[in-house]
Amino acid sequence: MMKPIKVGLLGLGTVGGGTLTVLRRNREEIARRAGREIRVEAAVVRDVEKARRLAGGALHITTDAADVLNNPDIDIVVELIGGYSPAKEWVMQAIANGKHVVTANKALVALHGNEIFAAAQERGVMVAFEAAVGGGIPIIKALREGLTANRVEWIAGIINGTSNFILTEMRDKGADFGDVLKQAQALGYAEADPTFDIAGVDAAHKLTIMAAIGFGIPMQFDKTHIEGIAGLTSADIRYAGELGYRIKLLGITKRTAQGIELRVHPALIPKKRLLANVDGVMNAVLVKGDAVGPTLYYGAGAGAEPTASAVVADLVDVTRMHTADPEHRVPHLAFQPDALSDERILPIGEIRTAYYLRLRVEDKPGVLADVTRILAGREISIVAMIQKEPKAGENTVDVILLTHATIEKNIDRAIAEIENLPSVSGQAVRIRLEELNRS
Ligand code: NAP
Ligand code: HSE
């Protein structure tokens, strides 16, 4: 067998520790697959003592990134510190020094991927990022290679383990939002800044990456529409359930005749869909290709060893392709760099989907007629409607409507008119609804 390929880790936390554990435990099996041993030589951290306790003595642990980045013996740099800086500077330096890079950092790839891949292309090195989307699920591999015959039509996924874990625990156990978030942090699922998980930013990073490799467009995080789970109420989760739906934080990107939809937000999904039954920290991505139809990828979306599984898969890929000519490698974004398209990303007002609306209305004749007249005036048709019983002593009731698909700006205009009706109190709740059927 050839001499070992040498790896330097930047970061030895949840994912770095998991990577070391998996590489050590499955050393022989991995070497048989890669064709040579993958050996971790050094790790860069802030707290050396903590890292020594985790790694044991066999590893050079340092606070000086130059020990890895400028070390001519290191072939692959694995960036697992997270965040933008110094992660970006270190990745760029590793590339400039001719090292291949593996990263789990979706924030970095979504925001700076275009620049990083251009530099890597120029220098003839690989940058692999399987762990950046869906934890241990090999979705990047599937999109870049397995589905390469297809024109991808849409991708929809539950791609943030922390928020899915929170929504599931709240629904099943009536658990408190803050308590479940603390649990997710203790389990190593949450980002360093957990608002990224809750506010949909982490899911948007991942969606940006999937859209780029699915459609052959540059990374465009700044054009991704983002809403998180903080505004969801238990009443809406319950009403959605009564109507046969579950509410999930969904990342969805679709190719339409007008442009590409790119959006993260809570959405109702029919309970009967597999995706609606993806619970806890599990993630799943549904990809619709024109030839294959819908395909579903499911697995642990976060955690030490599931994420390490993806990091190590990248290490094996890079090791196998290490000596190949750069033009024989799979392009970073699946499409050849000079063949990326500049298809327009649609503003959120132009997307087309169905809606769940909850209104608080006076319990008297004619109110629903006013509401349906406004919707009809904007050519929005209603699929289902329920009116709840008024509580004792109250004369207002909740009315829940499900609509057929329409353009978002139409529903927003209709809602503004409805909210102005004297018989409607407060603001309407509007949640998007995705049928996720074969079309
Ligand atoms: P983590 O547990 O916080 O570990 C971060 C590691 O990086 C620690 O060893 C830390 O060292 C080191 N580090 C951070 N800033 C540093 C700096 N300026 N200089 C030197 N060392 C530094 O993070 P993680 O959960 O493993 O996440 C790592 C990356 O993987 C992130 O990009 C994250 O988004 C991504 N990811 C995580 C998961 C998951 O389930 N956790 C899943 C998929 C992707 P000290 O401990 O000494 O401070
Ligand atoms: N914080 C992320 C999540 C980690 O909860 O999904 C995996 O990317």
Walk me through what this model shows.
With 439 residues, the chain is an alpha/beta fold. The protein folds into 3 domains: 170 residues, Rossmann fold; 162 residues, Dihydrodipicolinate Reductase, domain 2, CATH 3.30.360.10; 83 residues, 2-Layer Sandwich (Alpha-Beta Plaits), CATH 3.30.70. Helices cover 36% and strands 25% of the residues. It is built from 15 helices and 17 strands. Strands 7, 8, 9, 10, 11, 12, 13, 14, 15, 16 and 17 form an 11-stranded mixed β-sheet that branches. A 6-stranded parallel β-sheet has the order 3-2-1-4-5-6, with helices on both faces. α6 links the parallel β5 and β6. α5 runs parallel beside α6, α6 runs parallel beside α11 and α8 crosses α9. It is elongated. The protein starts with a strand and ends in a 6-residue tail after the last strand. Bound molecules: NADP nicotinamide-adenine-dinucleotide phosphate and L-homoserine. The site of NADP nicotinamide-adenine-dinucleotide phosphate (NAP) has 27 residues, from α1. L-homoserine binds next to α8.
